[in-house]
Each structure stands twice: as structure tokens, then as C-alpha cells.
Write a structure and sequence with these properties.
Layout: H1 15-22, H2 37-49, H3 58-67, H4 79-84
């Protein structure tokens, strides 16, 4: 049995995004993340059950509102993410400790627990 690690909590994206993302795992942001069909279906079921539509968290609602009906599979493509990160210098995301906008864990150290509130964010001065 393989173990999957989610980089973001399932309630940060809506059902439509998870369905799109899971339907093209062979091209998962430039990597082949293909799984056996049963594994794919089990993970998709978990993601759909715990998607943004099924959450009462403030960030889930804000993400849903910012995505609307768009086909977005990356949180960094949402207007919510862009607004929340607009004051962070672009160069910071290129820091060797961060590497990209997709590395949420670099600053949101408890993201896998769904904790992304302001008081849970690492001081970004440590990357400068």
C-alpha cells in the first residue's frame, strides 16, 4: 500500500478542482503522480468529502468565492491567494528554503493540519 501526502488541506480547494486535479495525475504539475485506479478513487473520495464546500473555515469560503466557476487546480492561481500574498516580495518565493509559491509548508508550518491562520505563519524575515 502506498501512502499519499497532501501538501495542502483538502478544504482549501473545491470539489471541481479536486476532480480536475485527480483526473490528470500523470501530469501533476510536471510530475507523474499516477496511482492505481482504486487508490485514485479512494483519495478522490476523501478529497471530495473534505473539500471547501464541506468546510466552515473562513479560508475555505474565501477560496470558493475567489474561484467561482473557474477551472483552477492550484491555490496560487486564486484571487484569494494573490490578495493574501500581494505584499510578499516575489524574490522570497525563490529563496532556497522556499523554492516556489507552491511550497505552502515553508511559511504555514501546520498547513497539513489545516492551520493557515495569521498566527500560525512563520516569520518571513527568517528567509531574508
Amino acid at each position: 500500500m502506498h501512502r499519499a501526502t497532501l501538501c495542502i488541506p483538502p478544504d482549501i480547494l473545491p470539489k471541481k478542482s479536486w476532480k480536475t486535479l485527480m483526473s490528470n495525475l500523470e501530469n501533476h504539475f510536471g510530475d507523474d503522480a499516477s496511482l492505481k485506479e482504486k487508490e485514485t478513487q479512494n483519495i478522490l473520495g476523501f478529497l471530495l468529502k473534505n473539500s471547501a464546500q464541506n468546510s466552515t473555515k473562513e479560508y475555505s469560503v474565501k477560496v470558493l468565492n475567489s474561484i467561482g466557476n473557474k477551472d483552477i487546480i492550484a491555490i496560487t492561481q486564486t484571487s484569494f491567494w494573490k490578495k493574501e500574498h500581494k505584499n510578499i516580495p516575489k524574490e522570497l518565493f525563490e529563496n532556497r528554503k522556499i523554492k516556489s509559491k507552491a511550497n505552502c509548508k515553508a511559511c504555514h508550518t501546520d498547513i497539513e493540519k489545516g492551520l493557515i491562520e495569521d498566527d500560525k505563519i512563520k516569520d518571513i524575515s527568517s528567509f531574508m
